[in-house]
Structures are given as C-alpha cells and as structure tokens.
Specification:
The protein is of the alpha+beta class and about 325 residues long. Helix content is about 35%, strand content about 25%. The protein contains 11 helices and 12 strands. The strands form 3 sheets. Strands 7-6-5-4-8 form a 5-stranded antiparallel sheet. A 4-stranded antiparallel sheet has the order 10-11-9-12.
C-alpha cells in the first residue's frame, strides 16, 4: 500500500526512488530494494501498475483505470492546511450557503477527519459572525471578485451616517479584527477602499466601466498593504518604536508591516522602524503593548498616544 500511495502522486518513479521513500519511514528502514522490485512486479502482474523500460531502468506508474479510486495522499503540511480550511468554513454557519458549506466540510472530512485546529482561539474575542451580513451582499461580493467586473456599491458611512453610491472595481476579500472587508479600487481617487460587508447596502453591475477606465483593473497588493497598518489608509510616515529587550523576540519573529526593519540598540532593546500611516489601528496596537514599547518618532504619534492615555486616566477618576 505504501508503494501505491507514493506512486499515486509520483508518476514514473524508479524502484530506487520508491526505495528511498520507503526507507524514510523508520518502520520500513530494513526493507531491501530487491523486496521493492519483487512487490512492483507483483503489482504489475495484478494489472495495478505499468512500467516503462529506459535502458536498464524501469519507471513505474499506476494504471489510469485505477487512479480515480485511489485515496489521495497528503504531506503533514497539506493535512494541516485541510484542518485549518475546515475550521474556517464553519464561519459560514447561519448564511444562505450553509448547506453547500456543510457538503464541502463532509468531503474534507474524508481526508482530514476529526477536529485539530481550534479557530476560536484565533478570534476568541469578537469572533467574526458572517450570519449578520446580508446574504445577497455576501454572495454578491464573492461573485463580484470572481467575475472581475466593475460594480456599483451603495455604502453606509458609519462616521458620517450617510449613504453614498459609487463605482468600484472589486479586487479581494479579507478579514481584520473579526470583520469581513471587500477591497475595491476607487477610480475617482485612484486608491483602494476597504469596505466592510455589513455596511454595503446594494451591489449592482453597471453596463460599462466608469469614464476613462479600462474594463479590468490589475490589483496592486503591494500598494494596498503599503499604505495601511490595519484597515485605515493614509500617507505613510516613518515610525520608530523602542521595544524592551525581554519582549523583543516576540516582535522580531513576526511580520507587522512590509516595510519593517529591526535594529538592536546598545541597551539590548530593539528598535522597530516602518513606514505606515498614523491610523487609529496603529495607536490601538501601541497602547495594547502597555509599557513594553515606546514611540520614539514621529512626535505627532507620541502626542496622540499620550492624549489617549490621558483620556483613559480621566475616565477612572
């Protein structure tokens, strides 16, 4: 069976290739290549394998008629990916596509049975609830990205409490802080918007692209991530943050922004440098690390952090 599993994903392998794979398993480390060769001949006689002669070597493959009934094999990393995917799919419970998602989960269960990945630990506070998003908007957003066509969206701006309708080109969906967003190119300002799906009221398909725009827009992922720290977008500024030596390994082993660099200070602390917009998400992120980090520059960000700290202190007086 181990030979068959290997050949199911390694067409045209030699007996030496197969033997090397077998020896990688401690349970079979004493298996001689002659045993492999005898097993291959036996499987060929049973009409399961076919071989091709090339000089003195034979190369083995599974017959076409058997491929569809053989179980797929996965590496450890691929198997973990299936468990993570299965866990994320459960977030569609309560939506219009719940039945279809359940069928997909059952199919994945055939290869990755049981529960391994606990999604709730990733979003254990404020976990995303897709059921609160209008089904037509959820499905419409997915189809808009897949079809890669211009759309017209009517969007509720929470800050201004207004409804606005404008053309956008849908590029990707992403999640941030338990919120599902539609990345859309805005032709008026030549930038990208992050539209919360729960605030989209209508998605329509116009007859033609906006004036002076091509039929398709190429999504510039680098530009989208470069001008953000979280969801909020603005002109990036150089930010320098001092990190206590005891917490530095946690920071230096993670990706916070595409522009990040770390410098080791004489004190043992680390200096994080990155070019990011001064966004509410950035300030919240800084405050969340309490006294372990300190903003060095720009001064505008220092003042912003101190202002929040003062307002927090006042609430407790």
């Amino acid at each position: 069976m181990k030979i068959v599993r290997f050949l199911s994903t390694h067409k045209g392998s030699s007996s030496k290739d197969i033997h090397t794979e077998i020896l990688a398993d401690d349970e079979y480390r004493n298996v001689h290549i002659r045993q492999i060769q005898r097993d291959l001949i036996a499987l060929e006689e049973e009409q399961l394998l076919i071989s091709e002669q090339d000089g003195r070597d034979k190369f083995w493959s599974i017959r076409k008629e058997w491929k569809n009934i053989l179980p797929e094999t996965y590496s450890g990393h691929q198997l973990l990916g299936l468990y993570v995917l299965k866990s994320y799919l459960t977030q569609f419970k309560g939506t219009r596509i719940e039945k279809d998602i359940d069928e997909l989960i059952k199919k994945i269960e055939g290869y990755a049975s049981g529960d391994v990945y606990l999604l709730s630990m990733e979003h254990n506070v404020g976990q995303m609830n897709l059921a609160r998003i209008n089904d037509d908007i959820l499905i419409g957003s997915v189809e808009a990205v897949r079809s890669a066509n211009w759309v017209s969206v009517t969007y509720h701006n929470q800050t201004e409490n207004t409804l606005k309708t404008y053309p956008v080109f849908p590029c990707r969906l992403f999640t941030y802080n338990a919120e599902l967003y539609l990345i859309s190119y805005n032709p008026k300002y030549k930038n990208y918007l992050a539209l919360a799906l729960r605030n989209i009221r209508v998605i329509d398909t116009p007859d033609c692209p906006p004036d002076n725009e091509e039929e398709k827009h190429h999504f510039d992922e680098a530009a989208f991530t470069r001008e953000r720290f979280g969801v909020f977008a603005d002109t990036p500024l150089k930010v320098r943050i001092q990190i206590d030596a005891e917490e530095a390994p946690f920071f230096t082993n993670r990706n916070w922004h595409p522009t990040q660099t770390f410098i080791l200070a004489d004190s043992g602390d680390s200096i994080l440098e990155m070019n990011v917009p001064l966004s509410p998400e950035l300030t919240t992120w800084i405050l969340g690390w309490k006294h372990y980090i300190k903003v060095l520059e720009p001064r505008e960000l220092v003042v912003d952090v101190l202002g929040y700290l003062e307002r927090i202190r006042e609430r407790y007086e």
